[in-house]
Design a protein that fits this description.
Layout (H helix, E strand, L loop, with lengths): L13 H15 L12 H4 L9 H15 L15 H12 L7 H17 L3 H6 L1 H12 L2 H5 L6 H10 L10 H8 L2
């Protein structure tokens, strides 16, 4: 806390100096003008999801596919999963990506699930065939850029090219407008 003697004492301008000094005290204490605790940059960010490995993404994709087709069951043979949230929890558990388990248990769950997938003992493989399961799992990890092809570029890439060519009005252009402007 600041010493009260630092505030500048009395006089005609004491109200203004008191406001400035109270703001300084609040800043030192980590609070904003209203008195609420100021958030640091780290606290302002939303909690990010953990990065998943390729095998984990494949497993999550397969499990969500089973849920979508009404094949996902609790513990394999129990009642069908009806809730999307529950399906996500099952997918993360099978993929070894849940925050509720230790790293060792997650690793073991992923190993066990991958072995089950290789043997073709998933609900999707049993109903639609192993090749259908493999297709679903490949699709889960396919990159979005691959579908675009070599010729197609993102708006960000087009904008960078327009900036390099010093194209006027590029910031207000849509992707289609950028493509037309760059191909003239």
């Amino acid at each position: 806390m600041l010493d009260p003697g630092i505030t500048g004492g009395g006089g005609a301008g004491s109200d203004a100096s008191t406001q400035v000094n109270s703001a300084a005290v609040a800043a030192i204490q980590g609070r904003n003008q209203a008195g609420a605790k100021a958030l640091t940059v780290k606290e302002k960010r939303s909690p990010s999801m953990a990065q998943q490995s390729r095998p984990q993404k494949e497993t999550v994709g397969r499990v969500m596919h089973e849920f979508k087709h009404g094949e996902l069951r609790i513990r394999g043979s129990g009642p069908k999963v009806k809730s999307r949230k529950q399906a996500i929890a099952v997918a993360l558990h099978e993929a070894g990506a849940t925050r509720q388990e230790s790293r060792a248990k997650n690793k073991e769950a992923l190993r066990r699930t991958k072995a089950k997938e290789r043997r073709g003992q998933t609900a999707e493989a049993e109903k639609e065939g192993k090749r259908a399961q493999d297709r679903t799992m490949r699709r889960a990890t396919a990159r979005k850029g691959a579908a675009r092809g070599a010729a197609g570029r993102t708006k960000q890439q087009l904008y960078a090219e327009a900036k390099r060519r010093n194209l006027q009005g590029r910031s207000t252009m849509s992707k289609a407008q950028l493509e037309r402007a760059l191909h003239h």
